[in-house]
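Appendix B. Extra example for self-study. Work through it before the problem class; the solution is given directly after the inputs so you can check yourself.
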Amino acid sequence: MQVDLNSIRQFETEIAQATSTQQLYEVKVKYLGKKGIISELSKQLKDVPNEQKKEFGMMIGELRNSFEAQYEAQEKKLAQAELSAKLTGESLDITMSGLPLVSGSIHPIMSVYYEIVNIFTSMGFEVAVGPEAESDQFNFEMLNIPKEHPARDMQDTFYISEDILLRTHTSPVQARTMQAQEPPVKIIAPGKVYRCDYDLTHTPMFHQVEGLLVDKGVTFGDLKGTLTEFIQRMFGKDIPVRFRPSFFPFTEPSAEVDMGCVICGQKGCRVCKGTGWLEILGCGMVNNEVFKHAGYDTSVYSGFAFGMGIERITMLKYGIGDLRSFFENNLKFLRQF
Amino acid sequence: MKISINWINEFVDTTGIDMQELAAKLTMAGLEVESVETKSRLENVVVAKVLKCEKHPDADKLSLCVVSTGDAEYQVVCGAPNVRAGQTVVFAKIGAELPGGFKIKKAKIRGTESSGMICAEDEIGISDDHDGIMILPDHLEAGMDVNDYLGLPDTVMEIGITPNRADCLSMVGYAREIAALYGLKLKERSWNLAETDDKAENYGGVVIENKEACPTYMGRVIKDVKIGPSPVWMQNRLRAVGVRPISNVVDVTNYVMFEYGQPLHTFDLREIDGKIIIRNAKAGEKLLLLDEKERTFNEEMLLITDEKKILALAGVMGGEHSGISNDTKDVFLECAYFEPKQTRKTARKLGMTSDAAYRYERGADPANPVKMVDYAAYLLQEVAGGKVCNGKLGEYAEPAEKKVTVDTKWINGYLGTSISDEQIVKILSDLHLNPVVNGTSVTVTAPSYRVDIVSDQDIAEEVARMYGYDNIPTTLPRIDADSKPMSRLLTARRDIGYQMKTMGFNEAINYSFMKDDFLKLFDDEAKFVKLLNPISEDMNTMRTFVFPGLLATIKYNLNNGFKQARFFEFASSFTKTDRLPEQRMKFAAAVAGDFWSMSWAAPKAIEPFFALKGVLENVLNAYKIKAEYVRSDRHFLHPGKAAEIVVGGRSIGFIGDFTPQLPTKLTFARMSCCSR
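Solution. Structure tokens for the complete assembly:
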């Protein structure tokens, strides 16, 4: 049996010269298809004398393997090239804008509100809320601010009826919480408050966060530590903090807390009125009169309370100059947050 | 209030103390110094006589003057309307530097040379008065230095005083604090009252009918006063603390009030018929007061009357008729203690304030009137030439001693300090709290002027503020680890907020109150909660819904040039009940204009109803809430483009376009809103 191996090995050239997977496939059909050149050789095997069968069979196998290997390599190469060509053809102008899924914004007061809540809850405080339209009893009486007390002058109150008002601070939540549970109490109470005052630096509605810790052995030092920790987490760990004696009817001793001016770095500027200090919150040890209203045993428990304005903290944090911009809801303003 | 260090020096010697340091110390002791004003010595400012005064040749409102300082004469252009020849004035020579850094130089004013300036009070920093030049008494010699005469130099501090520190509404109060802070000695004032043989009781008496409201009422009769200006040292001090000098008699009462915190009142003796009676008003009684307004009184108010008529509203203000006038000769001097609650109720009800009421409301020193009636009488004798009649009229009730016992161990435990017992006792002693020690127990007797000291906590405060809040160690409390997490409502509010932000909505915060007329477009007025004292009629009603605020917000932004807006808000709604209004947190979101921002890549325009419905379902899906949508018949909604959001058979809100029948200024193109 004579086989023209040279002519069969032509497939090597044909494979190498194929320029597309389609052309390559035609080569495959030509050699390995049903009537292909190599397939035909296999059909002839039955006519080969027995002593040559083994050698002939091995030759066909070797041709087949050789074809397959070269075919596969070439096919991979051509497919890759064809894919590249196709993808290049599909190129987009990647600089064009996408689907207009414009993000909205959280109101800056609420952002700061959540930030304050996060700091205090991480310390172990719970979040409590109470009604904004409140009774005189909870807003004043239970906080040691009886009628005719001069401290009522500090707060211009909106009234709904003689006994019902819009809470002037978040402190009534303290009174409600203490009425509802025994110590230990560890709450913060964020929310809206109202005062009858409307000018450049006052809006009739604003936001406060109140805090109250009552337990055995709570000290003024603990109050200092808790609020220093809070301010430094809010404004930076190097911010100086000072406590200054002050007066609130529901705490004794009371303090105003100042922090180093974040606008000028304590050099003195318009915002801190040249003092280098910014008043940031009020606090103190809970007045025993308040505990008596709640029925707490003052010989066993002590506690501290604090309150701060969220607007003020937000203004300092974001460098906002005009308080009233918070409630105008101008998109130009809101979209910055 | 303002304090003058020159004045305080009468009671404690502050020589050598740096004023900025003093201000810082006072602030850290609870008396917040809001400003420190240094009134420097004036150099090259002297007394001068106006020799000539003519109209400026080229200016209607200017005068051309020649002034003499004794050794020289100067030509000066002066703009003050009250300048006249013959006056004695304050003259700033060339080279003088006035407060505020204003330097006097040779100048040409409207073509005329001017060599110096005739000064007004504000220009030399002694008051805010700029009505005209300051006119001095003629006995002052030309060329004399003005500093001693004007009480310069001085330091004036403005102090923000908390309502508990009634004892610090006077110079003496600050002197006491400064003495305690610096360990200095307090100086006592003494006076020599020269009573005549004429007995005060010949001219009347005092009957106190309501001793609860007025336990002490002292009076003195001073005869033959000559009304005129008070001496300049008194005027200077009053001016320094912001009080305008009026006349010697009035100035004396103000002087004693600012020096000792004791309000006083003077009546013209000829206007008093018989005895002074302190009694409650009868409903409807009226009096024209010194502020020239007539007030009507009720039975809770306390009056000073005589046997025939009302003279004054006790502790608040005197009557116009019985006051001091230019021809007053004999004076009845009132020096009383009125109960704080009584004064406050009265002042509040009438909407009045006065320096006297301010002090009585906060708590004057109940022991003070006995001494102060004499001191004021002495001053009237000295500065108004009055003759003080023999004897005091009225009654004095000695205030009860206030003792508080406190344990030093408790103080340290409460503050978190370890202050030695000796130091605690020294602090209390420096504050004149008269500590008596018994082991670790200390009993203090608060002086009558310390009306704020009633409990052990008050003692802890005194120790803390004198020890220094800064010196108290900073510690962190132990908080039990069983804290409850934030409620589901608050968590949902926060999470939905961030979800809305992601979907392109801006969070709004509107005031909780709005105009009732506006709210009436959406809800029944019977449910409204109204404010008794709104800031304005535009903010007189608490909102029953949150969405109307968003309508206003959107309108505002469209008017400001925005073509589209997406807002949401969470807030309380308020509905009337018999007791506290029902208050529920509500959520509203609104879209105006196209939902998608203008972009080549925006999907095709979508009916806003469906845009917002997609947003709503996204929110509801996050909470696995399945809603059904049923056509809504709310009158303010578009009947074809609105639905009730029904969950579990109950409507939890609505979604839809507003009806175009709302007043035109409220309708926006394609606006949808969802609210619950």
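Self-check: Residues 212 and 305 of chain A are 4 Å apart (CA to CA). If your reasoning did not lead you there, revisit section 3.
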